[in-house]
Amino acid sequence: MSRLITIDPEIMGGTPVFFGTRVPVDTLLDYLKAGDTINDFLDGFPTVKIEQVILFLEEAGELASKEAACHY
After folding, report:
1. Which CATH architecture has domain 5-70?
2. How does DSSP assign 5-69, residue by residue?
3. How does pLDDT run across 3-29, given as a tens digit for each residue?
4. What's the pTM value of the predicted model, to 2 decimals?
């Protein structure tokens, strides 16, 4: 499996982007916060694959669950 996110000072000044793209992962979060769908995001950023979005959201969910468990 390829890497999910790239953080490189030569790409978008080190902003975390989806691997193989120049699309910041925060852009996906902004779309979702605004009520847009994953398909809306993918339509706007066709270099990002749906598999990358799904894996990102799954990993974010796992991290959030672990973080919440640490506070109980």
Report:
1. Orthogonal Bundle (1.10)
2. EE--TTSGGG--EETTSS-BHHHHHHHHHTT--HHHHHHH-TTS-HHHHHHHHHHHHHHHHHHHH
3. 899 999 999 999 999 999 999 999 999
4. 0.85
